């Protein structure tokens, strides 16, 4: 009986406001002390609520951490989408890389939680939204005929290299970090996935296949079945890189 009264008191400001207050408290604890610092007791004390309220609003600690990640990423992705595209698609990829690194260094708790787990993928919808931004950048490079590998491989190489660079930097004391590490990793990755000349003016069949595959969605002359068949053939050729 007493517990119910306390929980109602916790949410006197409204469930949405209480939820935001808990997420803000958990975010502060995560950034200051890592995931181990985000205990139910610590979050409840920081948010000025009782522990049962956390379980009722988020289910468990995993649900709370997901909410923390979702809020932090939503703000970051909104910032990314607000920036105008660079005319040069490769420069646009550089800009996106640098934004991602800046976010990771500014929010190590959220970045490490999302990218440092051995799970196959972090399946929050907002994470998928962030990947779509990167996929569009890769597709722009492919459509310009400047991609030397398949879009899938380019996407995974960029993700692996950028995330790896941030995690390495986060593992080092701030005053001993190599300020050029991210740029070096970025340029090495770009050199590995792009070509300096448009593929369709080159003799490279793989690059030409990648460029054509990126443009198939804008080709009304083909039926859906023809487009699917051609896409499969081009993907097979692109994968031979």
TrEMBL record:
A molecular function GO annotation: transcription cis-regulatory region binding
Domain HTH tetR-type: 16-76
Database matches in InterPro entries: Homeodomain-like_sf, HTH-type_TetR-like_transc_reg, HTH_TetR
Ranges of the DNA-binding region feature: 39-58
Record Gene3D superfamilies: Tetracycline Repressor, domain 2
A Pfam family reported for this protein in Swiss-Prot or TrEMBL: TetR_N
Keywords, comma-separated and alphabetical: DNA-binding, Transcription, Transcription regulation
SUPFAM superfamilies, alphabetized: Homeodomain-like
Protein's UniProt keywords contain Transcription regulation: yes
Superkingdom as given in the UniProt entry: Bacteria
PROSITE patterns, per the entry: HTH_TETR_2
PANTHER family named in the record: HTH-TYPE TRANSCRIPTIONAL REGULATOR BETI, HTH-TYPE TRANSCRIPTIONAL REGULATOR RUTR
Listed name of the protein: TetR family transcriptional regulator
Species for this entry: Gloeobacter kilaueensis (strain ATCC BAA-2537 / CCAP 1431/1 / ULC 316 / JS1)
């Amino acid at each position: 009986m007493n517990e119910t009264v306390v929980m109602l008191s916790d949410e006197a400001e409204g469930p949405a406001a209480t939820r935001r207050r808990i997420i803000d408290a958990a975010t502060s604890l995560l950034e200051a002390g890592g995931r181990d610092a985000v205990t139910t007791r610590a979050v409840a004390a920081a948010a000025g609520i009782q522990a049962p309220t956390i379980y009722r609003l988020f289910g468990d600690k995993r649900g709370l951490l997901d909410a923390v990640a979702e809020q932090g990423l939503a703000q970051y992705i909104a910032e990314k989408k607000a920036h105008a595209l660079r005319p040069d698609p490769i420069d646009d990829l550089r800009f996106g890389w640098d934004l991602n690194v800046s976010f990771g260094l500014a929010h190590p708790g959220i970045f490490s939680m999302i990218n440092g787990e051995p799970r196959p993928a972090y399946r929050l919808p907002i994470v998928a939204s962030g990947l779509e931004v990167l996929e569009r950048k890769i597709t722009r490079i492919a459509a310009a005929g400047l991609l030397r590998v398949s879009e899938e491989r380019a996407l995974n190489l960029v993700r692996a290299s950028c995330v790896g660079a941030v995690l390495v930097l986060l593992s080092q004391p701030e005053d001993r970090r190599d300020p050029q590490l991210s740029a070096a990793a970025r340029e090495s990755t770009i050199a590995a996935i792009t070509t300096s000349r448009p593929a369709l003016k080159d003799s490279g069949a793989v690059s030409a296949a990648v460029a054509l595959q990126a443009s198939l969605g804008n080709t009304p002359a083909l039926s859906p079945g023809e487009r699917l068949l051609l896409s499969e053939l081009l993907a097979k050729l692109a994968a031979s890189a």
